[in-house]
Specification:
heterodimer, A: 392 residues, mainly alpha, two-stranded antiparallel ribbon, two-stranded antiparallel sheet, B: 252 residues, Rossmann fold, binds adenosine-5'-diphosphate, binds magnesium ion
Amino acid sequence: MLGLNKRDTSFLIIVILLTMFTPFLMQPFSEGSAMAQFNGGYPDLMAKVAIFGIFAMGFNILFGLTGYLSFGHAAFLGVGSYSAVWMFKLLTLNVFPAIILSVIVAGLFSLLIGYISLRRSGIYFSILTLAMAEMSYRLAYSVFTPLTNGETGLQLRPGDPRILDAADASRYPNLFGLELSTSYKLEVLNHVFTFNVGFYFCAVIAIIAFYLTLRIFRSPFGMMLRAVKSNQNRMSFTGLNPRPYTLAAFVISGMYAGLAGGLLAVMDPLAGAERMQWTVGGEVVIMTILGGAGTLLGPVLGAGAIKYLENIFSKINETVLHSWFSFMPDGMEDVVVSFFAFFTGKGWALTLGLMFMLVVTFLPGGLVEGGQRIWNKIRRKKPDTPNNNPAE
Amino acid sequence: MSILEVENIGKRFGGLKALDNVNLSIKEGTVHALIGPNGAGKSTLLNVLVGKLVPDTGSVMFDGQSVLGRAPHEINQMGISRVFQTPEIFGDLSVMENMMIPCFAKRDGSFRMHALERMMDEKQIVASAEEMLVEMNMIDKREMHAAAMSRGDKRRLEIGMCLAQQPRLLLLDEPTAGMARADTNNTIDLLRQISEERDITIVIIEHDMHVVFSLAQRITVLAQGTPLVEDTPDNIKGHPKVREAYLGETAV
Ligand SMILES: Nc1ncnc2c1ncn2[C@@H]1O[C@H](COP(=O)(O)OP(=O)(O)O)[C@@H](O)[C@H]1O
Ligand SMILES: [Mg+2]
């Protein structure tokens, strides 16, 4: 089906189902229970998971397949957001022209940056991308303020021309009239599930992006990208020019990043330069490696895990900690609370860093490798038990 | 008619003259062996031929066209393939994928954006890759990780990858080093068969004299970056200069 073999088709169907049922899956705890704070079924968070999933998927096409590690992809995310907001301001609040422009502009921008950075490989390539992104970030604050509106950020204004739908007084992006902020709530058995138009829009785009990634991975082009990572020497002595392959991968991943940036603007029509900062580019690196670079599902899992945990951990402030540990004697409670405060709330970055270190050290293949190990154990254990039972 | 003309090639590495005034003419359709002690400059000469190194002086003409100044992939697309002294294969890819890549390069040239095409539709490529694997007697290893193979198998895979491109000139840098005797003999048979059946010229660097004398029609002896003699195998065997410079050294 759809040009995929049986295994990939079932893989795709599972991914579609998981995505479509995210509002249930991320809302496992009943309302009012102590665990409710660990629910993640808010439209905002779910959409972020889908959007950063797209960002990481695209990044993985470059990094996972060719091995070229870019620290500058935040620049394309930011450019995507700016393009989308400009489209909202000038043409229409319909989301399609906006995200199409995001992808095109990010594609052109990544063509320029890729062309320059790919003259080098290895660490020099990484440093070049980092420098370019940092430069874009600085320029967004200075020379390009007419385009970016500097520190205030680019946002919608009542006076925007909006050539196609100026009459419409709405301030929110829409899908042919249906506002993306629209939500429907479903209450069953003490659970509240929220179905948000914006999330489902992002989810459908993410599924399309995943499908394209799958096709790229399985194509001769995907194989050439893995060949680049494996042995560039053999590649050129086999008559293949590695440069256009890496450049194509760079531009494709830049377009994914632009799409993600556009979708961020769709969910919240405001674009600021902080989206182009190198920390955002670093985050997508961490997502990809944490989930499993070079695997299909890894980057999406990494994006989901990080965005979910970020949301949970940042909410746990000292008040919350005190309520958790109130059963302890007073002195001890304070010590324990101040210890955990390092890792929660604003200290979330520390937890992320530790998590990253642990995964890179013990699970170099990321969460996907972890999943595979568990799966292999479960499958191998069963037929093996009669033979190697040490208790006998 | 000569397919490759090397004239006055010189290459220095700092104070070391790795190649010094090398002149060489390779006749089309022959197997031409390059022998000489370690460090004689044999691999360096191949590096110049495939565009990995730019020489300080001289010219290299392949089939009437200059090779110098072209990128390695362009030179390869002109019809020159090379097997390296240490196997250069795609270690992270499967054996089958290793074999498919040269088939793609042969059909599509140095770049093609086939991002949404399906591997399963590439029946022609799959067929020729499989055919080559059968010929190299490694079809049973098709799904194996190339890096997991023995050194000898890696080398045979690399030879197969070069042959899959149907080059006009095949350069082999010690192709049987690290191979078991049986594999060496298989490789000799394969190379002989190829050179007889196909329109291909082979330049082979080899230390194993059994391989050299079973295959070569001409032999050039290189010592300290300069060709000493070039002659037929029979004449080379008894040549005093060769005994002194090359066979003498291997005895030490
Ligand atoms: N890239 C290089 N840089 C410096 N010296 C080199 C380089 N490549 C080869 N050489 C030197 O050039 C000489 C010839 O080497 P090489 O062509 O590999 O010899 P052969 O293949 O005949 O054993 C050797 O002395 C080697 O050390
Ligand atoms: Mg050598």
